[in-house]
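User: For my dataset I need records formatted as: sequence, then structure tokens, nothing else. Please produce one.
Assistant:
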Amino acid sequence: MAGSRPDGRRLSESPALPPVPADPVGMLRAQNDANGIHIDAQTSKPGWLGERLSLGYAIDVLHPLATGEIGHAYGRAATVTSRPRLPLR
């Protein structure tokens, strides 16, 4: 089967898929064990129980001024000496 673009050009072939191990589940378990990862029935249970969001706390921990990572988003790591409290509106 061959595919083509709307302008008629033919799509290139896709790369071959990587080989699948004989025991993929065993391989994943071994990798998890090696990395100290323990998956059980509680793994997918969220830590949030439906309580209201504390907007002030969320801003304090996520905003770059509050975390001291100002400038990190622009490719440079600068620190802030004081942590200003942002006013809520």
